[in-house]
Amino acid sequence: MAVDLTLSADTIRMFAQKARAAATALEDTFEDGHDGEIEFDEQTLTDGHHHDGLAEEEADDMSEEELRELIEDLNVDEAAELVAVTWIGRGDFEAGDFEQAAQEARERAEGSTAKYLLGMPMLADYLEAGLDALEL
After folding, report:
1. For the range 88-95, what are the long-range contacts, defined as Cβ-Cβ under 8 Å and sequence gap of 24 or more?
2. What is the per-residue pLDDT across 2-27, written as a single tens digit (0 to 9) for each?
3. Fewer C-beta neighbours within 10 Å, C or N terminus of the chain?
4. pLDDT per residue over 77-114, tens digit each?
5. Per the domain annotation, does 44 fall within a domain?
6. What confidence category does residue 59 fall into, taking pLDDT thresholds of 50, 70 and 90?
7. How deeply is 52 buried, as exposed, middle or buried, from its count of CB atoms within 10 A (0-12, 13-18, 19+)?
8. Annotated region Disordered: where (predicted)?
9. Is residue 43 situated within a structural domain?
10. Contact, 98 vs 6, CB < 8 A?
11. 4 lies in which domain range?
């Protein structure tokens, strides 16, 4: 069931790769599913903080931020198609109902598409499954 998308299948695959990288970066912050223990050296702690905010806590992996910006840069039709592919991959719609899914995504669009999609822990899997279902 080939569909004519505004977004290319390669672009959607890139979104899936970035989503997978962002999810992996989050998983790597925990050891065995638990927060690591934090040890403080009481002799070196002082009342004052000599750093610029929380800058040192920023991760080098900017995948989630990049993905968020890329999704936010999509126009209404592109964002609706990306959501529709996700819904098809998640099983909410059949591949033959792509146009209906995209229309519903346009109608239901409220707030940030990036926030909605990035709130899905399995976004990368849904995008890939959606592309497979659409034979793209």
Report:
1. 88/129, 88/130, 88/133, 88/134, 89/125, 89/126, 89/127, 89/128, 89/129, 89/130, 89/131, 89/132, 89/133, 90/120, 90/122, 90/126, 90/129, 90/130, 94/133, 95/1, 95/3, 95/133, 95/134, 95/135
2. 688 899 999 999 999 999 988 876 54
3. N
4. 999 999 999 999 999 999 999 999 999 999 998 889 99
5. no
6. very low
7. exposed
8. 43-62
9. no
10. no
11. 1-28+61-136
Q: How far apart are CA 106 and CA 58, in angstroms?
A: 34
Domain count, the chain: 1
Closest CA to 87 of 75, 70, 99, 77: 99
- Does the residue 35 lie in any domain? no
**Token pair for residue 19?**
């989503």
In a domain, 40, yes or no: no
